[in-house]
Amino acid sequence: MNDKPTGSGWLAVAFGVLFVCAFVATFFGRIADLSPEWIFRIWLICAAGVLLGWGRQRIKIGNPSSVIGQETLNFVVGVMGVTAAILALLIHS
């Protein structure tokens, strides 16, 4: 099994394009005018999509063991950390 699947590359390219679009959009509007609630909602749907895709692929190609791998733990904890940070910003804004 290749440890650098092309799906990872496509995901990185997709988010790279998204970040470039967000960067360009900052020249046409104020970031402070963005609704924190909508930022959180968009993050949640993106995070859910990535986690569901990740989990589906792991179930599809993984072995039948119920052991949770370190890579998956790191990924899920990272997503949870970003979600908590965005939520903290939302609460304090």
Architecture overview:
- Helix content is 73%, strand content 0%.
- With 93 residues, the chain is mainly alpha-helical.
- The radius of gyration is 16 Å and the shape is globular.
Q: What is the share of helical residues?
A: over 70%
Separation, N- and C-terminal Cα atoms: 46 Å
Q: Main beta sheet, described?
A: none
- Topology order in helix (H) and strand (E) letters: HHH
Strand content: under 5%
* Mean pLDDT rating: 85
Q: How many β strands by DSSP?
A: 0
Name the features.
mainly alpha; 3 helices
Short description:
The chain is an all-alpha fold and 93 residues long.
Which helices and strands, and how do they pair?
Layout: H1 6-25, H2 36-61, H3 70-91
Helix pairs in contact: 2-3
